[in-house]
Automatic annotation (TrEMBL):
Similarity annotation: Belongs to the AB hydrolase superfamily. AB hydrolase 2 family.
InterPro entries: AB_hydrolase_fold (IPR029058), LYPA1-2/EST-like (IPR050565), PLipase/COase/thioEstase (IPR003140)
Highest taxon, organism lineage: Bacteria
Protein name: Phospholipase/carboxylesterase
Pfam families per the UniProt record, alphabetical: Abhydrolase_2
Methyltransferase is among the record's keywords: no
Domain Phospholipase/carboxylesterase/thioesterase: 24-212
Organism lineage: Bacteria, Bacillati, Actinomycetota, Actinomycetes, Micrococcales
Length: 222
């Protein structure tokens, strides 16, 4: 089993002062391999203003000379050990428990590795997270103890990916195509010509997805 991981509480970018979190809806951004907390923070301008945004840094440093941070090691195209993805998901949950307890809801938005960790955290604690946004990521193969519970809860998940994304191996994409609809309330889109990246059209769809979550929060409070 991998060593327990911990996120650096000082390496977090917030859209609002964390003391303003009480009763508000939080969305946590998880960057991809070789990046850091600054990478996705620029998306804040595209997200509904009602959200507090926290962009966290992954706990590991990838092998030199790769810059930035990583959520779990990658050894070759198929070298993604599920136990390491789970360890990263557990570290994310620990950070949320320590720093986001006052939030009215917590949602996750991840890119690539960060998307895989977002889905893994959702599987570990289906009741803890309101939704997940999976950008150019995948669902990790292998069973987890609460997968059946997740399939009953069926939290909303948006999955966006490009037709020219050659970073995520095809078997992982094929697994995700089958796994997500069986366990979540899935929406999303495949973007023609998009590589392993995020497009304006995708951000428009993410915004619409998040607006829908806000509408659900509001109706649930009535």
């Amino acid at each position: 089993m991998p060593e327990p991981l911990a996120l650096d509480a000082a390496a977090v970018l917030w859209s609002h002062t964390p003391t303003d979190l009480a009763g508000r809806h939080l969305i946590v951004l998880l960057h991809g391999y070789g990046s850091d907390e600054r990478d996705l923070f620029g998306l804040t301008a595209y997200l509904p203003a009602e959200f507090v945004v926290a962009s966290v840094a992954a706990p590991l440093a990838p092998p030199w000379p790769m810059p930035g941070r990583s959520w779990y090691p990658i050894e070759g195209l198929d070298g993604r050990d599920p136990s390491h993805v789970t360890a990263a998901g557990e570290a994310l949950i620990a950070w949320v428990d320590a720093h986001a307890a006052p939030a009215a809801s917590v949602g996750l938005l991840g890119f690539s590795q960060g998307a895989a960790v977002s889905l893994q955290a959702l599987r570990l604690q289906p009741e803890r997270f309101a939704y997940a946004v999976n950008l150019s990521g995948y669902a990790t193969p292998g069973a987890l103890p609460r997968d059946a519970e997740l399939a009953e809860v069926r939290p909303p998940v948006f999955w966006g990916r490009g037709t020219r994304d050659d970073v995520i191996p095809s078997p992982l994409v094929e697994h995700t195509v089958e796994w997500l609809p069986a366990h979540t309330d899935l929406s999303g889109r495949v973007y023609p010509g998009l590589t392993h990246s995020v497009s304006e059209a995708e951000l428009d769809d993410v915004r619409a997805f998040l607006d829908k979550q806000l509408e659900g929060f509001a109706s649930g409070a009535d």
